[in-house]
Request: fold
Amino acid sequence: MRNSKIKQKMKQIKFPNSHKVIFFTLIILFIVVISLYIIKAPSNKQTAVATRIIDGDTFEIESGERVRLICVDAPEKQEEGYDLSKKFLEDLILNKTINLEKDVSDKDKYDRLLRYVYIYNKGEEVFVNKLLVQEGHAEVFRYGPDISKCDEIENRKIAL
Reply:
């Protein structure tokens, strides 16, 4: 008799389906992990508008930050070719939306963002750093740890 009363009480109590509990727990855990990853995932790419050209390898974006092109060195103000390289970069990116890509370092000792720069021209991606060198407005200049694309800019084949 006592066993039958216990069985009746057990039937009255509804236990949650353990599979559902595990499934929903996993879903919640998955959402939390993905959310944390999205919030904390560092991005090495950003979009900006070039608002002022300083010289052939440095410009300013709408945030007021200065950007130094990685792996290239264009003539300085007192050097031959300065006006041409500055004008070339101006025609290429001034007041246009550009894509900036970080390598290793975020900024140099002058507090300029160190970036590879890309634009879209007629639906094609143009690697600005490389184009400056190809067109003779800058030379390849390797400095610091930010050299992952210097070979590409210099048009060297990368060994696989």
Q: What stands out?
A: The longest strand covers residues 45-55.
